[in-house]
């Protein structure tokens, strides 16, 4: 068993896969450098991320997996879960070492883990598409921020670009300190941190930067949420299952 | 100004909430005009009410004034309630502004009948037209068909709406006559038929001429109120089946009646809506649409009503034990789908995974089947040798004691009304 320490980026993980073949390694334990605790008795290999090696692995995978599975691989990676780095590593090697079609073997552990993690990331992506609430600022930008469990901004960019083609918008990930800005033409990554200006109530920008009508619409939305409820059918267990409490802070209708 | 708009929204959202349709999927409206919105993908529930229903559309009435007097409806003429009506511009502005903030997927617009069918329908049409043509809105629009509106208006509305629907209200003509003597199932069939035929016609033309406009791309749906009149589950689901087949409906919705009136033809105010029964009807609907069951297999003269304590798939399996056990490693996909505890997703995974070797218990569990339920109905690579065959009642007992069914704890009262 050998330990491979990589930089935590996708390119690094792919390079690690390349190295494992080059070094004819049998059993490999991959770990990202920020979680690596050196151990004098364990042999370790420091993976130096390489565009070239990463590309070759990616292309190799593409030869054996369809677009759908390539997406699954990428989405699972965005989970940023340390255990999953190992699963992705094992999965890639399993795909390379077996005849085409091995990815449908759901009886295999790493196939199952990767596809199950992909479901979770996908669900988080979907929830962000649902739970983002824009606020219109005085200069006409629709602003929202989020703190998703997984790094889903790259996955939701397209959705919002297609949907809000005629308005400028910003979606900012508070946890990872970067955001997306759509300027009516293209989506750009931004790193400007707005949190300093925000009130302690997480989902509210200061009143002076908001459009004067913003308050009315968020009020109408809260009203609407209330009047569409049917008390005779109340079922909070079901409600919380659909809208887990950790998302409530984004939801204007939940800030009564 | 603000207060009046708030009051209207409150009244007209409140009156519209009994319509259970919430779907916002199935359309194919792409944002190609650099306008607002895109309705080509899956629907999104932006939030859920405290009763657990999806909120994806701004669901409102244009007005709750109505010339009719349907006993099950809050907007009925004889009900003493506050009345209100939106203007065309108000509905358009609300929709645009809610959509811009990512509150909704679009608009669900219904209405009480103001003056007459055409007068009302004409206003609904103006709203959708303004949204699409002037505001370049590509979000989802579900438009309620107004009974008695003329075919020309309906057809024109179909050019702008993603989905249209008209409610059957009661599952049988008899039930409907009891509570809404001025209405009939015929009034529902006529517009359903008209839109259905136009959809087919435009689809045919589309094959020839590329520029043919979209026409109700997400299809039609309908709704039945359950538990206000004494129909059996068999009558309800056979009606649904017939409407699915005759008009290619996308969905039939079942809405457990919530007592809102002291009318002695109806369940008294305060009685619980039949939630379990409603849930069982939806499960049956799923079995028909996604699991290849024929309605007659589930509901027939010998079994006119669904079981309350167990779901319809388990109930069917227990009545047909001769078809089990199913061998996971050899049976056809269709038969694996019929095993209680196995859903569409896991059935597909099983069929793919078994090509790599016979599946064992631990693999089946990981794939995500609900093993405790399924185990009574399947064989797998390492299944234990069975000494004696269980009979249905015994299996049901085991499953019920193992699953802490949430339904058993809620009072079962919908049948006692009659
Ligand atoms: S016609 Fe429609 S709105 Fe009017 S009373 Fe009947 S169900 Fe209610």
How many individual helices of chain A? 8
Average pLDDT across residues of chain B? 89
State the end-to-end distance of chain A.
55 Å
Q: How much is the average pLDDT of chain A?
A: 89
Say which molecules are bound, naming each kind only once: iron/sulfur cluster
Can you count the beta strands of chain B?
10
Helix content of chain A: 40-55%
Proportion of strand residues of chain B = 5-15%
Largest sheet of chain B: 6 strands, parallel
What's a quick, concise take on this entry?
The complex is a heterodimer of chains A (256) and B (418). Chain A is built from eight helices and eight strands; from the N terminus they run βαββααααββαβββαα.
What does this structure look like?
The complex is a heterodimer of chains A (256) and B (418). Helices cover 43% and strands 14% of the residues of chain A. With 256 residues, chain A is of the alpha/beta class. In chain A, the strands form two sheets. A five-stranded mixed sheet of chain A has the order 4-5-6-7-8, with helices on one face. A three-stranded parallel sheet of chain A has the order 2-1-3. In chain A, helix 1 (10-22) crosses helix 2 (51-64), helix 3 (67-77) crosses helix 5 and helix 5 (109-131) packs across helix 6. The radius of gyration of chain A is 22 Å and the shape is elongated. Chain A starts with a strand and ends in a 14-residue tail after the last helix. Chain B is of the alpha/beta class. Chain B has helices at residues 2-14, 88-100, 117-134, 151-158, 173-179, 185-208, 233-247, 275-290, 295-298, 312-319, 333-337, 344-353, 361-367, 371-374, 392-402, 406-409, and strands spanning 47-48, 54-55, 57-61, 106-110, 140-144, 163-165, 220-226, 251-256, 326-327, 378-379. In chain B, the strands form three sheets. In chain B, strands 3-4-5-6-7-8 form a six-stranded parallel sheet. In chain B, strands 1-2 form a two-stranded antiparallel ribbon. Chain B has a two-stranded parallel ribbon with strand order 9-10. In chain B, helix 3 (117-134) links the parallel strand 4 and strand 5. In chain B, helix 4 (151-158) crosses helix 6 and helix 7 (233-247) packs across helix 8 (275-290). The chains are: A alpha/beta (256), B alpha/beta (418). Chains A and B meet through helix 5, strand 4, helix 6, helix 7 and helix 8 of A and helix 1, strand 1, strand 2, helix 2 and helix 12 of B. Iron/sulfur cluster binds at residues 66, 68, 70, 73, 75-76, 112-113 of chain B. The site of iron/sulfur cluster (SF4) has 8 residues of chain B, from loops.
């Amino acid at each position: 068993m050998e330990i491979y320490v990589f930089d935590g980026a996708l390119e690094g993980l792919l390079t690690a896969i390349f190295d494992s073949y080059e070094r004819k390694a049998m059993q490999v334990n991959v770990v990202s450098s920020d979680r690596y605790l050196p151990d004098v008795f364990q042999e370790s290999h420091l993976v130096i991320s390489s565009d070239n090696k990463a590309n070759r692995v990616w292309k190799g995978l593409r030869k054996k997996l369809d677009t759908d599975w390539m997406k699954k691989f990428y989405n699972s990676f965005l989970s940023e879960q340390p255990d999953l780095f190992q699963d992705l590593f094992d999965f890639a090697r399993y795909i390379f070492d077996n005849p085409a079609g091995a990815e449908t073997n759901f009886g295999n552990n790493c196939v199952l883990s990767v596809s199950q993690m992909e479901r979770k990331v996908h669900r988080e992506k979907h929830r962000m598409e649902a739970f983002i609430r824009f606020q219109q600022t005085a200069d006409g930008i629709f602003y929202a921020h989020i703190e998703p469990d997984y790094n889903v901004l790259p996955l939701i960019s397209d959705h919002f670009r297609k949907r809000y083609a005629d308005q400028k918008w910003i979606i900012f990930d508070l946890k990872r300190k970067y955001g997306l800005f759509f300027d009516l033409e293209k989506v750009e990554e931004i790193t400007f941190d707005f949190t300093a200006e925000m009130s302690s109530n997480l989902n509210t920008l200061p009143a002076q930067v908001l459009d004067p009508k913003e308050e009315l619409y968020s009020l109408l939305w809260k009203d609407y949420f209330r009047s569409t409820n049917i008390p005779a059918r109340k079922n909070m267990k079901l409600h919380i299952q659909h809208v887990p409490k950790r998302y409530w802070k984004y939801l204007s209708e939940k800030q009564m | 100004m603000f207060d009046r708009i708030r009051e209207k929204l409150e009244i007209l959202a409140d009156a519209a909430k009994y319509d259970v349709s919430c779907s916002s999927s199935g359309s194919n409206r792409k944002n190609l005009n650099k306008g607002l919105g895109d309705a080509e993908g899956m629907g999104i529930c932006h939030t859920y009410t405290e009763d657990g229903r999806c909120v994806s559309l701004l669901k409102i009435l244009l007005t709750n004034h109505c010339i009719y007097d349907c006993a099950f409806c809050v907007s009925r003429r004889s009900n003493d309630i506050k009345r209100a009506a939106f203007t065309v511009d108000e509905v358009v502005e609300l929709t645009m502004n809610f959509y811009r903030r990512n509150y909704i997927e679009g608009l669900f617009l219904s209405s009480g009948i103001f003056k007459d069918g055409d007068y009302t329908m004409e206003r609904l049409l103006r709203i959708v037209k303004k949204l699409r043509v002037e505001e370049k809105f590509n979000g989802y629009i579900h438009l309620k068909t107004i009974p008695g509106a003329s075919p020309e208006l309906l057809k024109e509305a179909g050019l702008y709406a993603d989905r249209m629907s008209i409610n059957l209200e009661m599952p049988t003509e008899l039930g409907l006559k009891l509570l809404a003597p001025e209405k009939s199932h015929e009034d529902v069939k006529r517009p359903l038929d008209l839109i259905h035929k136009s959809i087919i016609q435009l689809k045919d033309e589309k094959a020839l001429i590329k520029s043919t406009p979209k026409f109700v791309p997400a299809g039609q749906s309908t709704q039945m109120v359950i538990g206000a009149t004494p129909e059996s589950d068999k009558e309800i689901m056979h009606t649904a089946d017939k409407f699915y087949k005759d008009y290619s409906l996308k969905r039939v919705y079942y809405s457990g009646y919530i007592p809102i009136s002291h009318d002695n033809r109806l369940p008294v105010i305060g009685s619980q809506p039949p939630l379990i029964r409603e849930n069982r009807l939806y499960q049956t609907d799923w079995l028909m649409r996604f699991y290849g069951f024929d309605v007659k297999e589930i509901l027939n003269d010998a079994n006119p009503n669904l079981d309350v304590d167990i779901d319809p798939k388990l109930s069917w399996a227990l009545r047909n034990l001769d078809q089990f056990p199913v061998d996971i490693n050899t049976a056809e996909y269709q038969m694996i789908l019929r095993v209680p505890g196995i859903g569409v997703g896991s059935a597909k995974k099983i069929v793919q995974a078994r090509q790599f070797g016979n599946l064992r218990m631990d693999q089946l569990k990981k794939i995500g089947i609900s093993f405790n339920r399924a185990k009574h109905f399947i064989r797998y690579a390492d299944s234990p040798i069975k000494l004696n065959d269980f009979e249905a009642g015994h299996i049901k007992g085991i499953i019920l004691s193992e699953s802490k069914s949430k339904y058993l704890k809620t009072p079962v009262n919908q049948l006692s009304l009659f």
